[in-house]
Amino acid sequence: MCAPPPAAADPDRPRPTSLTDLFVSFTVLALQGFGGVLAVVQHELVERKRWLTREEFIEDWTVAQIMPGPNVLNLSIMIGARWFGLAGALAAVAGLLALPLLLVLVLAAFHAQYADRPAVAGALRGMAAVSAGLIAATGLRLSAALARNPVPRSWSAGIVATAFVLLAWLRVPLVWVLPPLGALGCLLAWRRLR
User: How far is CA 87 from CA 94, 124, 137, 159, 181, in A?
Assistant: First the structure.
């Protein structure tokens, strides 16, 4: 069962106006998000459309990350279902996948033909660098919302540092890092919220 829409308490708060609005919004979002969508999703849903607050976005994005499947697809399902139930979830997913799928198929055909050219390889490396910068900037922008996080900052920093060491330096598989560190974070938050 989905949580009630956040706008239930505030009828003046922006929200998707229709299934078509949801479909078009997620299509536009998907077309902007090649190479990493976190920055685009946050900008569109929090800053531009104001369908979610920063705190709501962080909570929803966290849930979307731990669910199986692509993060943004999970988020689109949650947001669509929140506002319009099953029809909203389907409209958001269709918007997220339909036109971008066609575009990717066309790009794949061109890539197969021109992949051996140095200019194509250089352009792809440049796009990867831009994507990394967008993700880092979004993380910094959203960090202000973590001020109300129940886990003390020192513990949060310790969890992040431990994850970095285990994943980047020791090359421990994510499946062995995420459950214990995630459980530790949940336990710390639970104890503070009790």
Answer: 10, 36, 34, 39, 36
- In a domain? residue 166: yes
Q: Are residues 74 and 132 in the same domain?
A: yes
**Residue 193 belongs to domain spanning:** 150-194
Whether pTM exceeds 0.85: no
Token pair 């929200």 is found at 15
Query: Is residue 1 predicted with pLDDT exceeding 50?
Result: no
Cα separation values, 43 from 23, 120, 170, 185, Å: 17, 29, 34, 27
Nearest to 134 by CA among 32, 66, 11: 32
91 and 18, same domain (yes or no): yes
Same domain, 122 and 157: no
pLDDT digits (tens, 9 = 90+) for 9-49: 566 788 898 999 999 999 888 888 765 677 788 888 999 99
End-to-end Cα, the chain, rounded Å: 24
**Residues 36, 26 share a domain:** yes
